[in-house]
């Protein structure tokens, strides 16, 4: 049975707190695991969340600030220690190659795993797999930063009433799905498009075109909400977003489930992020993330 869920490993901005680890997020998608922004302590959080090195297939780093990347050294060494049997791809801004190299080879260890470096230097498609296409979009932060978007290919939903009307049943259902036609009946006659699911991961950024492009029609949007609205000036100055800004983007982009994360330690009441997001008019499903939370990808429409 396929599983599509987000496992939240850490939710703190800049520095960890007693209750929030540095960033770290694992997306489980039909047997593949994509690890986003492994900050310091990610390896231990993986253990606490029941995530093994063998679960990882890709690592995506948005940018090379420490709270989003210092955990790379430990994660990469753990992948090799556990002798993960499959290839793992790593995506990150090409401008940060020297940082990736330093973290990959921070200390001595034995390399046993094929880790393929696939840096990002422009908007576009990074990889195409059977179950998804992975894309990147540039963001607005003091250092080069990219957000990531995963799009499942559209499929077909068979319509029982139309199949019955054309007398198609049993093995013939599979045949028309495979071949697209059965006699004078086409696949379009007995089915409709089933839109593929969409997931986006947006970290440190101001409002920009990339944020809107990544969020468009997302079933699940994971996005930084570092500041509350009264501190919007700080957000702009430091290259971040507020709860209200994020909610407005999600509302206008048609997001189904919004996950807020990457919170500044200056705030003591997480519920205020939800209040401000609702006040901005977002009416979809909303989660204020905490460490070790599991968030399922919404079921298809």
Describe the structure.
The protein has helices at residues 42-49, 66-69, 72-81, 97-104, 160-165, 171-179, 187-190, 209-215, 232-238, 243-253, 271-279; strands at residues 4-10, 24-29, 32-36, 58-60, 88-91, 115-117, 124-128, 133-138, 146-151, 155-158, 181-182, 185-186, 191-194, 198-202, 220-224, 257-261, 285-288, 294-296. The model has no long low-confidence stretch (mean pLDDT 96). Helix 10 crosses helix 11. The strands form 4 sheets. It has a 7-stranded mixed β-sheet with strand order 6-5-4-3-2-1-18. It has a 7-stranded mixed β-sheet with strand order 7-8-9-14-15-16-17. The chain contains 11 helices and 18 strands. The longest helix has 11 residues, at 243-253. The protein has 301 residues and is an alpha/beta fold.
